[in-house]
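Homework help board

Subject: predicted structure for assignment chain

Our instructor gave us this sequence and asked us to write out the predicted structure in token form, then describe one feature. I got the tokens but I'm not sure how to describe them. Can anyone check?
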Amino acid sequence: MPDERKKDRFALRPDAAGWTVVEIWTGKPALAGGVAQTALSEDDAQHMLKLLNSQARRGDSSMRK
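My token output:
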């Protein structure tokens, strides 16, 4: 596993309506702008996953408020 992936805070899980971005530590759906990232298309989920993990690595929590 690449070193960068070891620092990931978020992951994808399938849900009944598509994909959910979840916080690895809690298992709860990730929030972006106060909105739970659930029932996303695979493309949208992948995009949010990359964005949230990138911001988490930089210590930026603005998307999660």
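Reply (TA_rk): Your tokens look well-formed. For the description, you could write something like this. The helical segments are 3-6, 42-58. That's the kind of observation they're looking for.
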